[in-house]
Design brief:
The chain is an alpha/beta fold. It is built from ten helices and six strands. Strand 3 and strand 4 form a beta hairpin. The longest helix has 30 residues.
Length: 280
């Protein structure tokens, strides 16, 4: 992905120097973090109760790698702004309000709860912001096996896609229904939310190439590999568990790949209607 020297977004809230410091250690902590990564559960309260994480913000030294990751995220976010601004105008008929992305290091707070390395990147509809500890890119590459800069860009684009859903009113309606049904039914709705975000991410990838020509050989393969590595079935299997479909919240590897491809091939937001699809 050609990103160096390109426009960065102004909608970045950098909390990496906010003070406080994450302190981690012990096999028990590693087990708790694994739960967070594999199941999408915010385990920050458990870490705080056990004294594993202290402080209310990020902090620590900002390394050269941190700086580069921040620049990369800023450029990727700027690309989402340009793409979705035009798509909302041409396909939706309304203005797009860009999302703010919070960069942090260690831990920080959001209206949706604590954010830490245990939560992974997420979109919070409470303040319309994406939260991202760029150290997750290292986890994505080394622990989850999703290497490459476009794999990281896919993660950013996926979280921005949740904001797109929020702007369209889809996310609010889906979450309102989830709050009124059983856990299994809520999980099934969550899968449709996530697969639609994957589809929107595919549209974003298509438009980035069409508008800016920044994709390089192998970039789409990196995104497809990332989608495979973070499928619910693959995560549960890699955690030593038998995949349990009723607990899935993001979709299988095959589903995530398929919906990304659908968005990439069609470029049409209407093709991403996972909620009307009989089969995912």
């Amino acid at each position: 992905m050609k990103w160096q020297g390109r426009r960065g977004s102004r909608n970045i809230e950098d909390r990496r120097r906010a003070g406080g410091k994450a302190q981690v250690g012990g096999l028990g902590l590693l087990a708790v973090l694994a739960i967070g990564y594999f199941l999408g559960v915010d385990v920050t309260p458990f870490l705080q109760d056990g004294g594993a994480i202290g402080g209310g913000g990020g902090g620590g030294e900002i390394t050269e790698a941190d700086k580069q990751a921040g620049e990369f995220v800023s450029v990727t976010l700027a690309d989402t702004e340009d793409v979705w601004d035009d798509l909302f105008r041409t396909q939706v008929g309304q203005a797009y309000n860009p999302v703010t992305l919070v960069l942090y290091k260690g831990v920080t707070q959001s209206p949706c709860g604590g954010a830490s390395g245990a939560t992974g990147p997420f979109y919070c509809p409470g303040d319309n912001k994406v939260y991202l500890d760029t150290s997750f890119f290292t986890t994505l590459s080394r622990q989850l096996g999703a290497r490459g800069d476009f794999a990281a860009a896919y993660v950013v684009a996926h979280e921005v896609a949740h904001h797109v859903q929020d702007e369209l009113g889809i996310l609010g309606q889906a979450n309102a229904i989830r709050a009124q049904v059983s856990d299994a039914e809520a999980n099934a709705i969550s899968v449709r939310i996530e697969l639609q975000a994957d589809c929107y991410s595919g549209i974003w990838a298509r438009e980035v190439q069409a508008r800016f020509g920044t994709l390089e050989r192998g970039d789409i393969a990196e995104a497809m590999n990332a989608a495979r590595q973070i499928g619910d079935d693959t995560l549960q299997r890699n955690a030593g568990r038998v995949p349990m479909p009723h607990t899935f919240t993001h979709g299988t590897s095959a589903q995530r790949q398929a919906w990304f491809v659908r968005g990439y091939e069609t470029g049409d937001m209407r093709s991403c209607d996972t909620f009307s699809a009989e089969a995912l």
